[in-house]
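Self-study notes.
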Amino acid sequence: MTTKIETFSQNFLKKPLLDLKSGDTVRVYQRIREGNEEKTQTFEGVIIAKKHGKEMGVTITVRNVILGVGVERIFPLHSNFIEKIEILKRGRVRRAKLYYLRKAKGKRAKLKKEGLKEVIAEEIPRKDIKTDAKNEEIKEEMKEKNNK
């Protein structure tokens, strides 16, 4: 059963909402008013949290390190000031909230790409027949030593 509030808020929801997840690197285009002018400002970073599910007030927290200082911004997805959101990369993470990235620096702050196993499998060159033969010879020598 839907309440009056739910039916009222359905009119204000943006219909084609992206499938955003924690770990995605996104670029958010936001309209900003300065006096009488309106301009578009972009903010690029990693989504560290997504809150409030599929409600009217769904928000994402985007984090970026700018000049050595961590900057986080919270964007309400159904806001009229959000023009568009581009997904640049998908990160493979095991948590819904990535608050540990606030303390992580350097290599620990990087996320693995999603589907990394497939890429690695394509880039590995085939083994030479000579190296396989050498490996078999070494295995046979080890077996002979163990048998003695």
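Second protein, same conventions, sequence then structure:
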Amino acid sequence: MKATFIINQLTFELDAEGARELFQQVAQIQEIFEAETSCGCCQSDDIRYSYRVSGDFQFYELACRKCAAQFRFGQKKGTLELFPKRKDESGNVLPNGGWSKWEPRHDGDSRPVSQAAWRPSDAPSKLIPNFLDWDTAERSNQWGKPIRVDGTLFHIPQGKRAYERAPEFAQVK
């Protein structure tokens, strides 16, 4: 049994031995690719899939292009399957449906914060990545976050899809 399944401009070609197996495949695809249609923090529908590597860890997320919030997916142990993370390690339901914003703090705490507004001037400059040129910056996984290019701070204003130079008051040396 073969089927073509379309979600959010993605086409999936499925091949199953029967209806039950096909049903399972569709359910797994929907759990990931239809997990969220808008940001849980600002309700924007301008979200994208994000993948990044940090050390030995791989992160699969949805990222809001308007407010830079993230929605994380967990990875099932022993398999390659993903699942939407809506609860913390203790089993408590996460605020904002699992969406959160990472905000650097002066005390070195890097835990996600769900509601506070981040101001570039609050962060020590070592927490904002600095790129020598735009080619390198565009290949990074920093979209939606403040960056420096050749020492100048840039950000994505609300509702836009391109970096703009941050206001002078936000420039941190």
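Instructor comment on the second fold: The CA atoms of residues 130 and 151 lie 7 Å apart.
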